[in-house]
Structure formats: structure tokens, C-alpha cells
Amino acid sequence: MSSLPTELIRSLQNTKGFNEEAFKAVHQSGIQITSIRFNPNKLAYSLKASPTGGGLEGAVPWSSNGYYLKERPSFTLDPLFHAGAYYVQEASSMFLEEVLKQTVDLTEPLKVLDLCAAPGGKSTLIQSIISADSLLVSNEVIKTRVNILAENITKWGAANVIVTNNDPKDFQRLQNYFDVIVVDAPCSGSGLFRKDPNAINEWSENNVALCAQRQQRILSDIMPSLKDGGVLVYSTCSYSKAEDEAIADWLAEELKLHAGQAVGKSIQLKLEASWGIVETVSEGSGSFGYRFYPDKVKGEGFFIAAFRKPLSSVAISEVKSQKSKVKSKQAFTAKEIEAVKPFLVNADNYFYIKQHEEIIAMPLHLQNDLAIIQSSLYIKKAGVRLGTIIRNELIPAHDLAVSCIIHPSIPKLDVDAETALQYLRKMDITAETDMKGWVLLTAQQLPIGWIKIMPNRTNNYYPKDWRILNK
Ligand code: SAM
């Protein structure tokens, strides 16, 4: 492995918790840690079954659903991975759960924005811990990365998520709107040097400075959309103070001068000593930050801090009180809705819209929020796509198959791992069954997609773009 950049090591010399010898040794060790986080909405099926080839090796201490694996299996060849039974996530990042638990009342209906969301690690975590009557807006500015975000959100199966594709400044149209904003900022990436040694060659002091400027720009753009009293969570996978504690100082002290928005000092969190997480106090504002060093925690390099926006005397903004109506791009009939209802659990708890000939379901209580977001942002995906209606019959969408709102009475065919992989490669499969028509294919009882059983053949409806390409 290339040696760690000397400028980085020098810059960390007086940083709390930094131990040069141990830090260098852990990078040289070549140790690789793999962890996954189970989807609590699908646990009833997967029962924490371990992924192909790996076995679980203890829980991630700050996570309710996170586990280390003994070795890294081929996730691509595990049907449960494609079914959204778990998400492969670096363990330190899972600390976001603890931060939210300590700073927000998660039993309340919350509006949460994950601003820099692709590929979806933090978003799937947030979705798992917010209440069903909460809303998650999962945003990614880069167009080419929003598809993988939408795919991962789809596999996670929840209906209370809207995926958007906007620049942070676009959120200024939603003043005083979110209870929680998570900014998992683009950064210089030194925290991932152990996992990806090639990244060492791309690191430079210049890039750290550029990233810090971008982080300030993102934060200043997004602050107006955080409610007074709301919580901002800021994280990076960089060890550089310029991207971590100095940003906390900037948030606490300078943002007010630049944009009239200050968040004050960050919130102090309670830590278990055994976790090995290092609390730092920033030089300027005395803000608390939490550092993860790979020689001290079983995880990669990470920094996280939480801030509460002060309550101000400014009147509640328009967006909060505004009553808006969802625009359904196309009209549809009551008969069409009747055709989709038998496919859903508690079908009356949703409202329905039609777009590109497809019916979409979203929780009823999010109707006003969808309308507000629709009028302000570019929506890539909202709720669960149910499918298209042809002659009053539903041609079901893949989203519905892997969603958590599908009715348990839908006919299912459970197949072994080999047949499941054949299906996921979009190859022909033979259904050993007397069933006819639309059938949900399952692996270890967990839905992976639709097949349609015809008199003389079985059609594979797995999405073409998602098919497994390797052998
Ligand atoms: N939160 C993600 C997760 O847990 O899977 C990882 C996010 S990654 C650290 C940072 C993200 O910020 C990337 O998806 C990147 O495309 C996005 N990004 C890059 N430039 C940005 C900008 N100027 N404003 C907002 N997001 C940006």
C-alpha cells in the first residue's frame, strides 16, 4: 500500500485521539472490515440469515441492526442482497443512528432530509429508525448517482420516502421545513484509505481546501430549510480538521455573518468508553465533534457532529401552513384504484397518483408534503410504484414486489439460491408449480420480483437494468 500522505500526518499531530504509530500500523495491516445493516422491515422474512459465504461476527455496538461479517462474501451472488434484506454499510457510519436517537424524538412524525444521499447508506438507516408517519426526502445532486440511490431506496421497500435530484440551493424554496437535515458531505476521503488504498494517490492539501469551501457552500445553502429548533447532522469521512472541527466552528460562528443563519454550538453526545470514539472540542466555538480512528474503533475513519438551530422570533413561514394539492400528471378512474387495492396491505391508508401510465401509492398523511415538494423540487421517485392498469387489471411493478406494503396473500413461489440467481440474471426459469398468472418469486421467503406463469412458459419480469451481469 502507498504510504499515507506526510502532509496529512503532519496536520493531525495535535488532534485529539491521533496516535501516529497506531494509525500507520492499522493502515499497513491490510485488515478489512465488512459490516451490514439489516432492514428491520424485512427481518420477519430474512430472520438475520447470514449472507452467502459470510457468517455474522457480533453486533456493531452503536447500531440496532448492524453486524460485522467474518469475511466479505460476494454480495452480488446473494439473493437476499437484491431483495433489500440488508445494506452493506461501513460500521462507523452507522453511528448516525445513535446521533439521531440522542438528539431527536424519533417517535414523532418528522420531516427528514438526507441532502447528499447517494448511494443510500444513510438514507436506508434513517428510514429504518423514523416513525411510519415521518417523511424522508433523500436527495442527490449528481444525476448519474441518483439512479443507484433510487434503486437502493426501492429495495428498502418503504413508502414514506421521496427521492429528489436537486442542488442544495434549490432547497431554499422550502424555508423552515425540515425537522432534521443530514449532510454527509462530499469530502477528501482520507477516512477510507484503509479500505481503498488507491484513494491515497488522489489526496492533496489543495483538495482538502476545495472540499472545505464546498462544504461551507452546501451548509449555507441548506440552512434556511431547517426549522427553528431543528437538528443538523454533519458528517465526513475525512480526518482533516479543515473539513471537520473547522466546519463546526464556521457553522457556529461565521454562517450568521454570511447568511444570517447560525446553528450555535454543537450538541454533546453520550458515549460508551468501550466504543473507542473520540470526542473533540473545536478551537473556536468549543463545538463537540466525534472522531472515529480505525486504530480505536472497528470501522473506518469518520467524523460526525450535531447542531440544534436556535429558535428565533421569525414568524412561521409560508411553506409550513401552505395547503397544496398533489399534481397527478394523468387522470385515472376509481375502477383503476379498485384494481390495485387487493395488492396492498391497508390500501385505504394510501393516496394514489398516476405518472407515465403508472399508479403510485404514498401514505395518506404525506399528501400535503408531496404537493409542496413537487412544487419546489425535481422528484425522481416518490412512494411505491404499483404498476400500470390495462383493461382494469394491474400489471404489477417491480417496486411493489420488493415493497413492504404488498399484501401477504399474493401468490408466492419460493426458489433455491441457484434459481433465484438465474432469475436475477434475467434468464428463463421453469416454475415447478400449478399456479398461474402473476406470482411473486421469493428466496428464503423474501420477495425478489415478479414472474408470470403462462400455459407453456414462465416470463421473467426482473428489471433489465438491475440484472446481475457477472457469472
Ligand atoms: N450519504 C451517502 C451514503 O451514506 O451512502 C454517501 C454520500 S457521499 C459521502 C457524498 C455525496 O455528495 C455524493 O453522493 C456526491 O455525489 C454528493 N455531492 C457532490 N457534490 C455535491 C454538492 N456540491 N452538493 C451536494 N452534494 C454533493
CATH topology of the largest domain: Rossmann fold
Percent helix among the residues?
A: 25-40%
Look at the structure and give the CATH class of the largest domain. Answer: Alpha Beta
Sheet of most strands:
9 strands, mixed
For the termini, the CA-CA separation is: 30 Å
Per DSSP, what share of the residues sits in E-state strands of 2 or more residues?
15-25%
List the helices and strands and how they pair.
Elements: H1 6-11, H2 20-28, E1 34-38, H3 43-46, E2 56-59, E3 66-69, H4 79-82, E4 86-88, H5 96-103, E5 111-114, H6 121-129, E6 135-139, H7 143-156, E7 161-164, E8 178-184, H8 205-222, E9 226-236, H9 245-259, E10 278-281, E11 288-292, E12 302-308, H10 318-321, H11 334-340, E13 350-355, E14 358-363, H12 367-376, E15 379-382, E16 384-390, E17 393-396, H13 398-401, E18 412-415, H14 417-424, E19 437-443, E20 446-453, E21 458-460
Parallel strand pairs: 5-6, 5-8, 6-7, 8-9, 18-19
Antiparallel strand pairs: 1-3, 1-4, 2-3, 7-15, 9-12, 10-11, 11-12, 13-14, 14-16, 16-17, 19-20, 20-21
Helix pairs in contact: 8-9
The structure holds S-adenosylmethionine (SAM).
S-adenosylmethionine binds at residues 93, 116-122, 140-142, 145, 168, 184, 186, 214, 218.
